[in-house]
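Structure first, sequence second, as always.
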């Protein structure tokens, strides 16, 4: 028994699309290549000023996220995912965690207009699960239950930072 195809063919094959630049997914030459070369804790700080008195408190958690990206050379880029988690109970600080988690990315054959979205959406998306684990482990090691941060919509953060509206997925155009 053969499973039905996941996608029904409804337009021209990708190879049939024109090369007049109207297709945003048409890359000259080789397709873009994105690879993580390495990832690392760049900075980590944990303060637990109220311990042991606050270990049983149910604190209010505040999470801050910041992203930075910079070019190191023509094909290598560093992305920094900065997480700041502060907790307060009865207006007293329970803990403060600051993490800068970095990733070194190799990006080749990507058009210049795609670099920023790759670095500020896809890069943090790949780094986030590892940074989230570090946050959970450090908070647990500080005597509190581990904090499992919900997934972050980096595309929405990018749009908010750049003032862009969500873009619909480009549909292939039918030849006339």
């Amino acid at each position: 028994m053969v499973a039905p195809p996941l996608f029904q063919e409804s337009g021209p094959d990708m190879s049939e699309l024109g090369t007049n630049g109207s297709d945003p997914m048409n890359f000259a030459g080789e397709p873009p290549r994105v690879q993580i070369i390495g990832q690392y804790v760049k900075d980590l700080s944990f303060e637990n000023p109220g311990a042991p008195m606050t270990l049983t408190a149910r604190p209010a958690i505040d999470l801050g996220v910041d992203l930075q990206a910079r070019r190191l050379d023509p094909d290598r880029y560093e992305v920094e995912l900065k997480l700041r988690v502060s907790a307060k109970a009865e207006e007293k600080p329970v803990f403060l965690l600051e993490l800068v988690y970095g990733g070194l990315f190799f990006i080749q054959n990507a058009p210049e207009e795609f670099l920023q979205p790759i670095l500020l959406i896809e890069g943090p998306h790949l780094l986030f699960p590892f940074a989230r684990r570090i946050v959970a482990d450090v908070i647990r090691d500080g005597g509190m239950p581990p904090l499992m941060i919900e997934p972050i919509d980096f595309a929405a953060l990018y749009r908010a930072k750049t003032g862009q509206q969500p873009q619909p997925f480009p549909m292939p155009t039918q030849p006339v």
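Margin note: Residues 30-162 form a domain with the Bacterial Protein-export protein SecB fold (CATH 3.10.420.10).
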